[in-house]
């Protein structure tokens, strides 16, 4: 009986070990990536870290041993909002989207939808930096009300800066080629199908944030007569903000700019794909 019990324990241990191997795969990341547990850079060109097959969490091999079962990163490592990995931020704070995105969009929609050149017109850079520091310091308690920042372009500038500062863009390096491919397709049905496939490549937090942002930008276009911002104009602003080419070739990245614009324009016009 003792031998049978020992065999059962060994079998169970082997099964658990197998599961841990299955759920965490060594992964080669395209473009720069940061560990979502310790927030440090993943060095190397291949097999830089481990990707969780369940939740998409990206961590160093050594950090994967310390990640809890729910893959939630340690809050003590998440000391700021800007320049922090998006998935890390939402998991650490147990939110669907980064609070800076929700708060800025709420503020913009409450008092800025009719503002001419919304998102196109730049706000005062020093005040945009103030908003950034307020979020990094105070998180969801940051005051971005009209009493603090009367010019709505300060808030739109802070939102755009958040997306530009992401270490991994909202449209990730891994998903980037598929999105660009969709913009190059001429057949409308095939284009939408490819765009839908591209969305499936995004991590859940990235996809949810993109969905929320596109719904907001659609509402911006409904006030086009007042703000003069249609889907094409917003695509010009947000294309390079949400997408960065994983290619190091400057010319190749430059050639992609028109397709980045088209991707955002398509996403605004076809929100049902989410």
TrEMBL record:
It is found in: Membrane. GO terms for cellular component: membrane. It holds the Pfam family RhoGAP. SUPFAM superfamilies: Cysteine-rich domain, GTPase activation domain, GAP. Keywords: GTPase activation, Membrane, Metal-binding, Signal, Zinc, Zinc-finger. It comes from the Eukaryota. Residues 84-274 form the Rho-GAP domain. Residues 26-71 form the Phorbol-ester/DAG-type domain. It is a peripheral membrane protein. InterPro entries: C1-like_sf, DAG/PE-bd, PKC_DAG/PE, Rho-type_GAP, Rho_GTPase_activation_prot, RhoGAP_chimaerin, RhoGAP_dom. Residues 1-15 form the signal peptide. One of its GO terms (molecular function) is ephrin receptor binding. PROSITE patterns: RHOGAP (PS50238), ZF_DAG_PE_1 (PS00479), ZF_DAG_PE_2 (PS50081). Its main location: membrane. Gene3D superfamilies: 3.30.60.20, Rho GTPase activation protein. One of its GO terms (biological process) is regulation of small GTPase mediated signal transduction. PANTHER family: CHIMERIN FAMILY MEMBER, N-CHIMAERIN. This is Beta-chimaerin. It comes from Pan paniscus (Pygmy chimpanzee).
């Amino acid at each position: 009986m003792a031998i049978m019990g020992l065999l059962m324990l060994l079998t169970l241990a082997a099964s658990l070990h197998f599961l841990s191997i299955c759920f965490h795969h060594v992964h080669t990341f395209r473009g720069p990536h940061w560990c979502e547990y310790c927030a440090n850079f993943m060095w190397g060109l291949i097999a830089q870290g481990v990707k969780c097959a369940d939740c998409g969490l990206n961590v160093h091999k050594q950090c994967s041993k310390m990640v809890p079962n729910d893959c939630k990163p340690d809050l003590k490592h998440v000391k700021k909002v800007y320049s922090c990995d998006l998935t890390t931020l939402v998991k650490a704070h147990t939110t669907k989207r980064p609070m800076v995105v929700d708060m800025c969009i709420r503020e913009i929609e409450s008092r800025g939808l009719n503002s001419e050149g919304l998102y196109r017109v730049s706000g005062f850079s020093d005040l945009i930096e103030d908003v950034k520091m307020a979020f990094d310091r105070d998180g969801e308690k940051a005051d971005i009300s009209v009493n603090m920042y009367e010019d709505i372009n300060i808030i739109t500038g802070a939102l755009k800066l958040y997306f530009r500062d992401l270490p991994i863009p909202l449209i990730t390096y891994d998903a980037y080629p598929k999105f660009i491919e969709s913009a190059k397709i001429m057949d409308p049905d095939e284009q939408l199908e490819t765009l839908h496939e591209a969305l499936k490549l995004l991590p859940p937090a990235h996809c949810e944030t993109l969905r929320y942002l596109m719904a907001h930008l659609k509402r911006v276009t409904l006030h086009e007569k007042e703000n003069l911002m249609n889907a094409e104009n917003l695509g010009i602003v947000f294309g390079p903000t949400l997408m960065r080419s994983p290619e190091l070739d400057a010319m190749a990245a430059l050639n992609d700019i028109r397709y980045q614009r088209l991707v955002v324009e398509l996403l605004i016009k076809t929100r049902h794909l989410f």
